[in-house]
Design brief:
Keywords: Cell membrane, Membrane, Transmembrane, Transmembrane helix. The protein is mainly α. The chain has 3 helices and no strands. The chain has one domain.
């Protein structure tokens, strides 16, 4: 169980960092937020992969297609986060 949690954090960090590198513009995100975006992106990528290919993972946890799906999902989550989170402004200034 601890190995699964550590691997989710590592994959989340890699996917989130790659997403931040691939999406243009400045993102004011901390390292923990990058990990969260990567982890959520992994779930989004896995869900989209299941919807498109109708195939569940059977060859283990680390797969090249799973990492690519994680990065694509993290890019989607990051773009949504920037679109929704970018609307917050301070009023009264």
């Amino acid at each position: 169980m601890l190995g699964l949690i550590i691997s989710l954090i590592v994959i989340g960090l890699i996917a989130g960092a790659l997403a931040r590198l691939l999406v243009p513009g400045k993102q004011d995100l901390s390292i923990p937020m990058t990990i969260v975006i990567g982890i959520v992106g992994s779930f989004v990528g896995g869900f989209l992969g299941y919807l498109i290919f109708k195939h569940d993972k059977t060859e283990g946890f680390f797969q090249p297609s799973g990492i690519v799906g994680s990065v694509i999902g993290a890019i989607i989550v990051l773009l949504v986060w920037l679109k929704v989170g970018g609307r917050r402004t301070l009023r009264g200034r």
